[in-house]
Amino acid sequence: MSTPHNTAQNDEIAKIVLMPGDPLRAKFIAENYLDDPICFNTVRNVLGYTGAYKNKRISVMASGMGMPSIGIYSYELYKFYDVDTIIRVGSCGGYIPELHALDVLLAKSCWSESTFAKVQSGEGSDVQYPSPSINQAIKDTAKIMNIDLKEYRLHSSDVFYHETNQAQDIAIKNGCAAVEMESFALFHNAHVLNKKAACICTVSDSFVHDENLTSKQRENSFDTMIKLALETTLRI
Ligand SMILES: O=P(O)(O)O[C@H]1O[C@H](CO)[C@@H](O)[C@H]1O
Ligand SMILES: O=c1cc[nH]c(=O)[nH]1
C-alpha cells in the first residue's frame, strides 16, 4: 500500500518509530545508529528508514514541522501501517532558567492553544498526555544510563515567530517549561487510535539565556536523546 505522503509497503515499517521533526535528523539517526537502514520514504523529502538497533527492528521517520504535518504522518503510521508506538525525538526552546542547551526533557503532558484536537475528533481538551507505559520505560532507561532526564509539561505551539510575548506568558501560566510544535497532535492521534506515544526533546535554545544551537547541531548533536530513545525501544 501507499498513501499520498508515504510510499512504504505495509511490512517496510517497524512497530516502533522514532520521529524527529527534521528529515536530516531522521537520516542522521538511521545512518549513524541503525544497522542496515533502508529508506522507505522520500515523498516531499520527509525521509523514513527502517533498520535494526541491537537486533531490534526500528524505524525512524521525520514528521516535518508543526501539528498539521505530524498529524498527517503519525495518523498514517498508526492507522495504515499498524505502527504501535511513536517516540518523538525533537528540539525545544527553554522558557525557564533551569533549562539549558542540550538538556534532555521528557514530556509529562503538553498544553496547546491549538484547535487540532477539537477539529480532529471533537475532543476539546487543551492538555494531551503521553502513554504512561512508554514514559515509564524512558524514565527507567534514563536511570540505567545515568541520564539527567528532566520531566516537564511542554507547550505545543502553532507559531514559531511571535510579535509579542503574550503566547509565551500564557503557556508559562499553564505550567509549560519549554516550547515545541508537535507533541499535542501526536499524543492526541495516539489517544484516538488507541496507540502509544511519547516525546523526548533536547533543548536547542533558551528564552532566558543566550544559548542557541545551529541548524547543524539540531541535526546531529542530540546523541544523548537518540541513545535514550533507542535503548528504550529494547524495553517496550
Ligand atoms: O527539531 P524538531 O524536532 O523539528 O522540533 C522543533 O523544531 C522545529 C522548529 O524549529 C519544530 O518542529 C519544533 O517542534
Ligand atoms: O524555540 C524553539 C525551539 C525549538 N522548537 C520550537 O518550537 N521553538
From TrEMBL:
Q: Which Pfam families match?
A: PNP_UDP_1
Domain (Nucleoside phosphorylase): give its ranges.
15-225
Keywords on this record?
A: Glycosyltransferase, Transferase
Q: What is its EC number?
A: 2.4.2.3
- Enzyme class (EC, first level): transferase
Known catalysed reaction(s)? uridine + phosphate = alpha-D-ribose 1-phosphate + uracil
Q: Which GO terms describe its biological process?
A: purine nucleoside catabolic process
User: What one GO molecular function would you report for this record?
Assistant: purine-nucleoside phosphorylase activity
InterPro entries membership: DeoD-type, Nucleoside_phosphorylase_d, Nucleoside_phosphorylase_sf
Claim: ATP-binding is one of the keywords in the record = no
Q: Does the keyword Transmembrane helix apply?
A: no
Cellular component terms per the entry's GO annotation: cytosol
Q: Which PANTHER family match?
A: FI09636P-RELATED, URIDINE PHOSPHORYLASE
| Annotated NCBIfam families | deoD (TIGR00107), PRK05819.1 (NF004489)
Its name, as the record gives it, is Uridine phosphorylase
